[in-house]
Write a structure and sequence with these properties.
This protein is mainly α and 756 residues long. The chain has helices at residues 2-8, 32-47, 53-68, 74-84, 86-101, 104-114, 130-143, 147-175, 180-189, 198-202, 209-225, 233-246, 251-263, 267-283, 286-291, 295-313, 317-334, 337-352, 358-370, 374-390, 395-412, 415-431, 435-446, 464-479, 483-496, 504-521, 525-538, 540-553, 557-574, 577-593, 597-613, 617-633, 637-654, 657-674, 680-703, 707-724, 727-743; strands at residues 14-15, 18-19. Helix 28 runs parallel beside helix 30 (577-593) and helix 30 runs antiparallel to helix 31 (597-613). Mean pLDDT is 80; it is low at 1-26, 175-204, 287-293, 451-459 and 748-753. Belongs to the APC5 family.
Length: 756
């Protein structure tokens, strides 16, 4: 490609095939594609008055991406013009044909005539307009060409036109074999407003300064807001390497290469590109021009800070700490308070890996507000809220703190942080077991319009906040038995965040967890076991916990107990309270199944104390249900019914469908056990009430296709109907029970020893 570039494109900084370091010293140079644009502007100026309002509007919208974007083949340019104004496209083609098939003096005359656009009392083009600046740049660049370069430009124009003619000839021959409807479909898909594709860029030569800046800013914006519309990592790196070949000191290209390497988790390439970015920033003097003599030191300290952030992202905490210490030292020598506040924020993140420290974070928030850094202050408040949520602070205090940060967001129009704040609220309500509030916050974020200006064709909301909220939404639907809706949400997530994108791991984990729960509900433990490996790869703690659940379901009690004990020690060490409580509940269930009912009680009381200490209301309710079940087993069903009334309301209001079914099933068991001491009439009423509760439990279990629990409910109902002498209802339940019993394996443990 280098030889093609040297022969077809005319960079005045290229001499004897060598590219000078400052290849962007000249902002623009003339290429055949830009000559085609000049012809378009010339024809538009001549026939503009004859065009309709709609055609002019379409052409005006078309011009800006054409002027800013990289060079493209003539065929694509013609198609773009034809979609806006077919008559003008024909005029441009004829004018280019006359110039390409004519003589060199025709091209000379064309550039001489361009200057007439600025003359007269009412010129066709204003000098300071976008089109006027482009025309002046082209005229200036053409006038600076030597005679040999003018001749090469004319030869390149002829080749540019001939390539289009050859392509048109092959397209006409292929048209006979192609359906007309398919051709129309392809034409509708080709729009200039969509981000640049690989084949569109690779056909162009070295980009001018403006084209390169436009390309880099567009791709950087896409990587931030909508990664799916950006070029693939391989093709983007290819274009960046091509750009750096013509200008190795283009610092912004090195930084985009750094961002691109982060997409694929390439430690070496990302570190290499980041260091090159700051090296070039210092060498080109860009920092010193904008910041005086302080520019050199500023680049060094921010280079160290970015390097620390990079190492922290990849889990290299020791290297990150060393780089951060270097950044702090240089920032203190330069008295740079802004850099020091960023360093303090990263210092908190590193310290958080070792021990919880609110002092650093509170100090960072106060200092950030003092130095007028609302973005950093808001991030500090968000982190503080998250830490205090894990520490068990009351939800109303956390929401008040988030309200204060929201005031900062709206005051300074920090759209991204508004999204993060709402996603944080969704996660907090989920942590506290308030699924209705979490659903409300999720819907709020999804229905919001962004405050930021978005490029055409860019989906603004492809950020981590939306990925988190959509994942919670999918899990909430799955918990309520709406598996089809959850699948649709996950399908949307897969389209929005492809597997190679940086936020794909979020939906991958939730997808695996939902599949696991469905397999467990359906009694397909071999399928659930196969999903454990995928969950472990994405989250080791979740994977180990679910492996223990599978072992418990398969009646491998000793193996499950060993695994849960190891997981409990690890979670207590890292202070993962939510998982500690879940593990304690699973250990208590193992004790029940092993007929060690008295040993389960201290474990449940420990789980209840933790859940109340950390304000985890839903887990507290679930623990109370387990305690009620223990009391039922120990022969005090009346006491079990009393404490059930404390816990069942939050479960029915915010719980998953499976938990609702288990709660109602437990109520029915306690009612039947309590009825043994009642008078005959009161006993009949208690049993009929238990049957109604069993019907409700059966509805819940059927919703999530939990066949094992359905079988247990049907067995229990058949026994109750038999006691009441209702033969027809008993036979119906017995028949349904037999069908499920033949389909499922034997229960393996007595019915009364299983809460879930």
């Amino acid at each position: 490609m280098a030889s093609v570039h040297e022969s077809l494109y005319f960079n005045p900084m290229m001499t004897n095939g060598v590219v000078h370091a400052n290849v962007f010293g000249i902002k623009d140079w003339v290429t055949p594609y830009k000559m085609a644009l000049l012809v378009l502007l010339s024809e538009l100026g001549r026939t503009g008055a004859q065009l309709g309002l709609l055609e002019r509007r379409r052409l005006n919208r078309l011009l800006l991406p054409l002027l800013q974007g990289p060079d493209m083949p003539l065929s694509r340019l013609r198609k773009a013009i034809e979609e806006s104004c077919p008559h003008l496209a024909s005029s441009v083609h004829i004018r280019l044909k006359l110039m390409a098939e004519g003589e060199l003096k025709d091209m000379e005359q064309f550039f001489d005539d361009l200057s007439d656009s600025f003359t007269g009392t009412e010129p066709e083009v204003h000098k300071t307009s976008v089109v006027g600046l482009f025309l002046r740049h082209m005229i200036l660049a053409y006038n600076k060409l030597s005679f040999s370069q003018v001749y090469k430009l004319y030869t390149a124009l002829q080749q540019y036109f001939q390539n289009d003619e050859k392509k048109s000839g092959t397209d006409e021959s292929d048209m006979e074999l192609t359906n007309t409807e398919e051709l129309e479909g392809k034409m509708e898909k080709e729009e200039l407003d969509v981000p640049l594709r690989e084949e569109e860029i690779s056909c162009s030569g070295p980009l001018s300064q403006k084209q390169a800046e436009y390309f880099l800013s567009q791709q950087a914006s896409l990587l931030k807001n909508d990664e799916t519309k950006a070029l693939t990592p391989a093709s983007l790196q290819k274009e960046l390497n091509n750009l750096l070949k013509f200008n190795p000191d283009f610092a912004e290209a090195h930084y985009l290469s750094y961002l691109n390497s982060l997409r694929v988790q390439d430690v070496f390439s990302s570190t290499h590109s980041l260091l090159h970015y700051f090296d070039r920033l210092i060498l080109t003097g860009a920092e010193s021009k904008s910041n005086g003599d302080e520019g050199y030191g500023r680049s060094l300290r921010y280079a160290a800070l970015n390097l620390a952030a990079l190492h922290c992202r990849f889990g290299h905490y020791q290297q990150a700490e060393l780089a951060l210490q270097e950044a702090i030292r240089i920032a203190q020598e330069s008295n740079d308070h802004v850099c020091l506040q960023h360093c303090l924020s990263w210092l908190y993140i590193l310290e958080q890996k070792i021990f919880d420290s609110c002092v650093l974070l509170e100090h960072s928030v106060n200092k950030s507000l003092h130095f007028g850094l609302p973005y950093l202050a808001s991030l500090g408040i968000q982190s503080l809220v998250q830490q205090r949520a894990f520490a068990g602070k009351a939800a109303n205090k956390l929401m008040d703190a988030l309200k204060d940060s929201d005031l900062l967001h709206w005051k300074h129009s920090l759209s991204e942080l508004i999204d993060i704040s709402i996603a944080q609220k969704t996660a907090i309500w989920r942590l506290y077991g308030r699924s209705t509030m979490a659903l409300q916050q999720a819907q709020t974020l999804l229905s919001m319009n962004s405050l930021e200006a978005v490029n055409v064709g860019v989906q603004q909301n492809n950020t981590e906040s939306f990925a988190v909220v959509l994942c919670h939404l999918a899990e909430l639907h799955a918990e309520q038995g709406y598996f089809a809706a959850a699948s649709e949400i996950l399908k949307h997530l897969k389209e929005r965040f492809p597997p190679n994108s940086q936020h794909a791991q979020l939906w991958m984990l939730f997808d695996q967890k939902i599949q696991f729960e469905r397999a467990m509900n359906d009694g397909r433990y071999h399928i659930a076991d196969s999903l454990v490996a995928g969950i472990t790869a994405l989250n080791s703690i979740e994977g180990v916990y679910r492996k223990a659940i599978v072992l418990k379901a398969q009646n491998q009690m000793s193996e499950a107990h060993k695994l849960l004990q190891k997981l409990l020690i690890h979670c207590q060490k890292i202070k993962n309270t939510e998982m500690v409580i879940s593990v304690l509940l699973s250990i208590a269930e193992l004790y029940w199944r092993s007929s060690c009912h008295t040993i389960a009680l201290p474990v449940l009381l420990q789980a209840l104390a933790l859940s109340r200490e950390y304000s985890l209301q839903y887990l507290a309710s679930e623990t109370v249900l387990n305690l009620a079940f223990s009391q039922l087993i120990l022969g005090i069903p009346e006491q079990a019914l009393n404490i059930l009334h404390m816990a069942i309301e939050p479960v029915l209001a915010h719980g998953a469908v499976l938990d609702k079914g288990c709660a109602m099933f437990l109520v029915a068991k306690c009612q039947v056990a309590s009825a043994a001491s009642y008078t005959p009439q009161k006993k009949i009423e208690a049993l009929e009430s238990a049957i109604l509760n069993l019907n409700e439990a059966k509805t819940y279990f059927a919703k999530v296709d939990c066949k094992e629990q359905l079988r247990d409910v049907l067995y229990f109902q058949a026994r109750l109907f038999h006691t009441l002498g209702k033969t027809q209802e008993r036979n119906k339940c017995a028949m349904l029970f037999r069908q499920l019993h033949q389909e499922l394996p034997a229960h393996g443990v007595p019915l009364i020893n299983a809460f879930k």
